[in-house]
Specification:
There is one protein chain. The chain is mostly helical and about 190 residues long. The chain has two domains: about 1-70, no CATH class; about 70-188, Four Helix Bundle (Hemerythrin (Met), subunit A), CATH 1.20.120. It is built from ten helices and no strands. Helix 5 (about 70-85) runs antiparallel to helix 8 and helix 8 runs antiparallel to helix 9. The radius of gyration is 20 Å and the shape is elongated.
Length: about 190
C-alpha cells in the first residue's frame, strides 16, 4: 500500500472515530474535547469527509483490481476474514479494523461480496471477450467456495476456519489459470 493510500485510510478511520465519539459522547466535557466541537464542524461535513475518503480508497482498490486481476478480491477477503476472526482481540486492543468500525454484520456481508465478486468478474470477462470462453468453467468452483464461506461465517475462528479464505483463493485462481490456458491453446 502506498503512502498516500495509507494516509487516506488513516484519515478516514480518524474521521470515523472522532465523529462516532462526538455522537456517542455521554457528557459535555467529552463532546467539547472533540475536534468536531472545537472546530465547529457540522456533522454533515464530517460524514461527507468520511464518505469522500472512503470513495477514494475504494476507487483506488478497484483500480488496482482492474490493473492487475479481479482475484485481488479474494486477497481482500482473506484480510477481512483475518480481521473478523480477530474481532474480539482487536476490540480489546483498541484497533480500528473494519469489523470494529462498521460492525461485524456489515463486515461479514462485505466478506460475502469479496468472495463472490470474482465470479461476476469472470462472467463479465468472458462476455466482453477479455478471457477465453473456457474460463467460464471456473464457475464450477463456486460450490466449494460457498461451502468454505459458510463454514467460516458460521464460526469465524483463526485456528479452525480462517484457512478456508486462503483455500478459496487457491481453488479459484488455480482453476482460472488452467481454464484460461486451455482456452488460449484452443483459441477460444
Amino acid at each position: 500500500m502506498e503512502d498516500r493510500e495509507k494516509l487516506i485510510l488513516n484519515n478516514m478511520i480518524t474521521g470515523i472515530n472522532h465523529t462516532i465519539d462526538y455522537i456517542t459522547a455521554k457528557d459535555e466535557k467529552t463532546k467539547s474535547n472533540s475536534p468536531i466541537e472545537a472546530e465547529h464542524i457540522p456533522l454533515w461535513v464530517a460524514w461527507t469527509y468520511i464518505v469522500v475518503l472512503m470513495t477514494i480508497a475504494c476507487a483506488g482498490r478497484l483500480w488496482l483490481c482492474f490493473r492487475t486481476n479481479w482475484m485481488m478480491f479474494f486477497i481482500g477477503g482473506a484480510i477481512l476474514a483475518n480481521n473478523i476472526a480477530d474481532h474480539d482481540r482487536d476490540k480489546i486492543n483498541g484497533r480500528a479494523t473494519m469489523p470494529i468500525v462498521f460492525g461485524i454484520k456489515k463486515a461479514v456481508n462485505f466478506y460475502y461480496f469479496l468472495e463472490y465478486m470474482p465470479y461476476v468478474a469472470i462472467i463479465l470477462s468472458v462476455i466482453l471477450r477479455f478471457a477465453p470462453i473456457c474460463t467460464i468453467l471456473t464457475l464450477g468452483t463456486f460450490p466449494w467456495v460457498k461451502k468454505n464461506v459458510d463454514k467460516f461465517v458460521a464460526n469465524p475462528d483463526k485456528q479452525k476456519t480462517f484457512m478456508t479464505s486462503i483455500f478459496n483463493f487457491h481453488i479459484v485462481v488455480a482453476t482460472e489459470i488452467v481454464t484460461m490456458f486451455i482456452g488460449f491453446l484452443l483459441h477460444f
